[in-house]
Amino acid sequence: MPKVLVIYAHPETAKGSSTHELYKHFINSYTAKNPNDEIVVHNISEYMPFRLNKLAISIYNKNLAKSDFTPDEIRFNESREQWLEEFVNADKYVFVNPMYNLFIPAEMKSYIDMVMQAGQTFHYNSEGLSIGDLHGKKAIHLQASGGNYHNDLIQNDSMIYDLGDQYLQTMLHMMGVDDYSGVFAEGMDKDPMHTIEILDHAYAKAELAGKGF
User: Fold this and answer.
1) Which neighbouring-strand residues pair with 138?
2) Which of 16, 91, 155, 209 is deepest in the core (most CB within 10 A)?
3) DSSP code, position 94
4) Residue 39, by phi and psi: left (phi above 0), alpha (psi -120 to 50) or beta?
5) Any idea what the Cα angle at residue 198 is, between residues 194 and 201, rounded to 5°?
6) What CA–CA distance (Å, rounded) separates 69 from 167?
7) 3-state secondary structure (DSSP) of residue 108
């Protein structure tokens, strides 16, 4: 049974959030096509306990030095390892977020920092190059933004300003996940008179993506 891991980064989940509605259209379509798949959802805007903080850095340095952990470090590391194992064992990843200042929310960046672990999601070869270890998996990015960055009505170079999507795709590639796609609800602030049409189009794309994911 395939395992789907949803990393949701938005503090607002009530009706009216275009991010949440985009996700609902996708996941409802997906579950209708794949009713037996296991789906785990983490809203990391509400709970993201394993940031790259002082404790995490201490654990990293002690691992290199092969030193003993303190009780707090042991608890932190064991709990973080459970989340990391969950990420490694998932078959599909769904990343959901609004765009914040051309980037993903800070909590999603912290999540990527947590799972980007040498020896577990990637390794270095004899030449010092990083090699991804998560093969045969797929990912999709669902994002809402007020401006236009991806649709057919804009110039291609506008995509360079969606730094978050570029970052997410790059980091997943470094971990070996190359089957990557995105669905974007965008332009509502730039063209508020056509918000309903914009969202309806994005939701239709999300439903289609859900069927094929």
Assistant:
1) 92, 179
2) 209
3) E
4) beta
5) 140
6) 32
7) helix
Residues 6+ apart with CB under 8 A from 73: 55, 58, 59, 62
Query: Mind listing the pLDDT tens digit for each residue in 24-48?
Result: 999 999 999 999 999 999 999 998 8
Cα angle: 134, vertex 143, 113; to 5 degrees: 40
Tokens encoding 50: 């394993």
pLDDT tens digits for range 157-203: 555 689 999 999 999 999 999 999 999 999 899 889 999 999 999 99
| Cβ neighbours of residue 153 closer than 8 Å, sequence gap 6 or more | none
The label of the residue with tokens 């997410």 reads 168
How far apart (Å, rounded) are the C-alpha atoms in residues 1 and 110?
A: 29
Instruction: Show the DSSP H helices in 13-142 as ranges.
Output: 18-33, 54-65, 71-89, 106-115
**Torsion from C-alpha of 28, 34, 39, 43, nearest 10 degrees:** -20
Enter the DSSP assignment of 181.
E
CB 80 within 8 A of CB 110: no
| SS3 state of residue 90 | coil
Q: Which residue has the tokens 């980037």?
A: 103
CA distances (Å), 123 to each of 91, 118, 134, 175, in order?
20, 5, 11, 9
| pLDDT, average across residues 136-140 | 97
pTM of the model: 0.92
CA dist 170 and 167 (Å) reads 5
